[in-house]
Amino acid sequence: MTGFHLNLSLLTPGHFRQAWRLPHVDPRAHLDIGHFERLARAAEDASIDAVFLGDGPALGPGIENAPGTGLDPLILLAHLSGSTDRLGFVITSSTTYNSPYNLARRFNALDHVSRGRAAVNIVTTATPAAAANFGLDRHLDKETRYRRAHEFLDVVTRLWDAWEPGAVVGDRASGRYADVNLIHAIDHHGEFFSVRGPLPVPAGPQGRPVIVQAGGSEGGLGLAGEFADVVFTVAQTRPKAVAFRQDIRRRAAAAGRRPDDVKISLGVVVLVSETEEEARRRERELHGTLPLETLAAAVIADLGLPADAFGPDDVITVDDLPDAPPQAAFSVGFSESTRALIAERPMTPRELVHRSAGGSGHRLLVGSPARIADDLEDWFRAGAADGFTVMPADTAVDFENFTRLVVPILQERGLFQKDYPAPTLRERYGLPRPRQATTVRPPLTR
Amino acid sequence: MTGFHLNLSLLTPGHFRQAWRLPHVDPRAHLDIGHFERLARAAEDASIDAVFLGDGPALGPGIENAPGTGLDPLILLAHLSGSTDRLGFVITSSTTYNSPYNLARRFNALDHVSRGRAAVNIVTTATPAAAANFGLDRHLDKETRYRRAHEFLDVVTRLWDAWEPGAVVGDRASGRYADVNLIHAIDHHGEFFSVRGPLPVPAGPQGRPVIVQAGGSEGGLGLAGEFADVVFTVAQTRPKAVAFRQDIRRRAAAAGRRPDDVKISLGVVVLVSETEEEARRRERELHGTLPLETLAAAVIADLGLPADAFGPDDVITVDDLPDAPPQAAFSVGFSESTRALIAERPMTPRELVHRSAGGSGHRLLVGSPARIADDLEDWFRAGAADGFTVMPADTAVDFENFTRLVVPILQERGLFQKDYPAPTLRERYGLPRPRQATTVRPPLTR
């Protein structure tokens, strides 16, 4: 059995954002590098493929109630690459608020210093708070953001490819260091960017860092089909996940790629304890921390329903829903995922908040280690995913409970690797090394 | 005796860029993280304050002959912060090709994850090659670059200060995480930037990362007086260095700061071996690698002299020089430094290339460990500097020769620390923690 991949989210205090209120949690843990170093070691001891961090460059709403966005993930994970040997790093970066040259160069550097363990999770960033930190009165509309993201990835991948193998000659006797005929300017002039290139140094061990894509809108899916090595997605129901995976594989084929060259990593929030009873007790405890009214209102708004139409315990049926997710939804993927849940069975806003892990949007999976392993195995065997991005409900407990209790079961069943089978993340995911399309480029001239 | 600080440059293969041609040097060492990890450990074992990397976001000229700009230094040094405990990191970043919000956030993160060991070396980047990677037809003129740098640092320092102490409340019982009256938007609207702020997280252990400034032009000196904690500078002659230090201290006082609150770190290229003879032999060997004609032509151009007026062995006197460094000089600081050398004694372009470490522009210091230590002590006691940024001539040899052979002498003389006296770089440099000017800011509203 191949292709079962596991990433673990480092989000702290957890995907239940109010987990900081529990007595065993340090409310400042998201600023404590010692905390992250412990998690990274636990992940590496369990042969986890990569750790993951989401991001948005702004102080989000709700800081009164919980820590939101944390430390810049590129810096945090570059640091962790220095205290680990095999663990991979999936780092969320915005195509709207970075320049492609800087981003290409930074991930090139991370690929070198981590010896092939770098992945970039491309997002377009949809919040007005971020726009205001970068000189924009309001954030770009979705269509424009994805057009920019497309051009951005085109530039970045060409920069990563611009040194052909053999460009570094290093002939001591003649003093010839490099063959400039094998180092290409990209001379890009597009709608959003003009970039001459090349990068100052050749590609790292992966050729290109792994590209992860997380948006579920039409623009995001188009980007995924063309550029993504891994698609990080959300699904509350198995049929929806299976259909999504088939759709992405079709899109990759339509873009001239092999369907197996794009992997689906399904997000799932995990709350796991040694016994079912203890897991349920902890679930009740976490639910007790939630600001239910606020979260219920957010769920209702994301479904496109009127703010005062449903109380927390009023049942929503599929007939109550509008024909499609609202344009203003925070995320089309999350909104569609919630709709699928209601289509299975009518639910109250309170249930929806609980089932989506306190409003994180992802499916909540609670129970004993065997129950968690059974669930992941079932979804995997049903073709719902090539692997999972596991998001701890309460990171202080569930991160290490997952690595210590669930991973060994998956390993014993022959589903998950007992050791790292290859040094680079790209090889471990079973992804090809992209070929370089060098022939179309002009040689570097100065 | 306090105030003798030592930084070490990681530039690879060395400040003699052609050092890669020597038989013991790996021509790809600048891409090898193992190489940098060994250097970082050697530096930390010697209680070196910080390692340093210059930078420019472009493939520079001369890749035919030598590796130029290397890996992105922010990523490389963030990685090294994960495999060291006490060593500081001085990382060159461009104010012209970064956005202030991203830069402020990344150095805030580095300060957290390194536990107070982050310093940013601010440069404005003067090369057309960099401009072409960021959508500019030609690079901004110097005056505009420094006006932008000034506004940039104003924004960055205010972002670093925007969370007042005590803003994180973390009251588990009430669920109140933060006091929004102590977290301030900066609401900046200037000539170059509009930035709302604040950062998503509070300041790190240093309050603000250390700010280093390296430009010797009038714009750079103005910036140094107002913002710099450390000024990194070049001088070929001691009187020039003493005068420069006095000038910077006066500028700091004029900006309302204490003169002792800005430290001068003087660049010096070091070639050191156990014996004087061996050092001289290695110097001849390194000189043999130089493309002398090219480097002599560059020196002549930087002095503002006609290209064909002087051969490599024609003597240049002070009377040959124009009244001031040319506007087109790569660096005013380097050009003035070379002028001072010629004013001391007439010299040929060949001598100038040798004395400036193969065209690096900095003073070359060659000899036995005792000779190197004597020189640094003399310059320090003369008031030429508060410390040195030591740049290995051939990094594969001189980095560890310096830490292993020269540092112990400086320690025995009571000049340099035998152990790290404080955890943060700011404290070790003897710099104050800047006070936060919170009263002028509007409270954060959403």
If you had to describe this structure to a student in words, what would you say it looks like?
Chains A, B: This is NtaA/DmoA family FMN-dependent monooxygenase. Chains A, B: Residues 32-384 form the Luciferase-like domain. Chains A, B: It is an enzyme of class 1 (oxidoreductase). The structure is a homodimer of 446-residue chains. The radius of gyration of chain A is 22 Å and the shape is globular. By secondary structure, chain A is α/β, with parallel strands linked by helices. The first copy, chain A, is 37% helix and 14% strand. The first copy, chain A, has 2 domains: 5-274 and 363-428, TIM Barrel; 291-357, no CATH class. The first copy, chain A, has an 8-stranded parallel barrel with strand order 1-2-3-4-9-10-11-13, surrounded by 8 helices. A two-stranded antiparallel ribbon of chain A has the order 5-6. Chains A and B meet through helix 1, helix 2, helix 3, strand 6 and strand 8 of A and helix 1, helix 2, helix 3, strand 6 and strand 8 of B.
Principal-axis shape of chain A equals globular
CATH topology of the largest domain in chain A: TIM Barrel
* CATH arch. level architecture of the largest domain in chain A: Alpha-Beta Barrel
Strand content of chain A: 5-15%
State the helicity of chain A in percent bands.
25-40%
Alpha-beta classification of chain A? alpha/beta
Which stretches of chain A are poorly predicted, pLDDT < 50 over at least 5 residues? none
Largest interface: A-B, 79 and 79 residues
Separation, N- and C-terminal Cα atoms of chain A: 52 Å
Order of the strands making up the biggest sheet of chain A: 1-2-3-4-9-10-11-13
What is the domain tally of chain A? 2
Assembly type of the chains comes to homodimer
Could you give me the name of the CATH homologous superfamily of the largest domain in chain A? Luciferase-like domain
Total DSSP helices of chain A: 14
